[in-house]
Structure formats: C-alpha cells, structure tokens
Design a protein that fits this description.
The protein is mainly alpha-helical. It has a domain of 49 residues. Helix content is 52%, strand content 11%. It has a three-stranded antiparallel β-sheet.
C-alpha cells in the first residue's frame, strides 16, 4: 500500500475510498500464500523418503542411536534438520 493524499468531500466519499483501498489490498494479497508455520518435526514416512530407506531401517538406525526419535502423544517424529544432517554426514 502506498501513502497517498486524498481529497475527501464528505463521509460517503470517505467510506467509498476506504472500500476501494480495502478491495485493492485484498486483491493484491489474494495471490500471496499465507505463511505457513512449518513444524521442524516430520513423520517416519517422510524420513523414509528423504533417506530412501524402509521403516525397519530407520528404526534400526534409531536403535543404534544414529538418529533420534521424538515421541509426542504416542506418535513418533523426527527432527528434519537432524535427519538432513545425518544424510550429509553419510556422503
């Protein structure tokens, strides 16, 4: 939005100008995707895709303490940054 000086004659003009500005702002922001707050945690399926391995392999690496799993409400998650670091260290 740019700062502009408007010549407003009466309250109806003011109201119409507000409406025009709001419509303009909404149309500009319509194409922008809302910023999604992404969690740093991913599920086992994503880990398998990233590492190109099976679930048993991932759980084997967890048992060997190569990667760390996190439990939230009886569900298992992995920190994506840690998985990517593990992937880099294996090259």
């Amino acid at each position: 939005m740019t700062n502009q000086l408007y010549a407003i004659k009466d309250s109806d003009d003011l109201l119409n100008e507000f409406r025009r500005i709001i419509k303009e702002e909404l149309s500009e922001n319509k194409n922008e995707k809302p910023s999604e707050k992404k969690s740093p945690f991913i599920k086992i399926e994503e880990v398998c895709k990233l590492l190109q391995v099976s679930k048993p392999t991932v759980y084997h690496w967890v048992s060997k303490k190569f990667i760390i799993k996190y439990k939230f409400n009886s569900r298992t998650y992995f920190n994506k940054e840690e998985i990517l670091d593990f992937l880099k260290s294996q090259k």
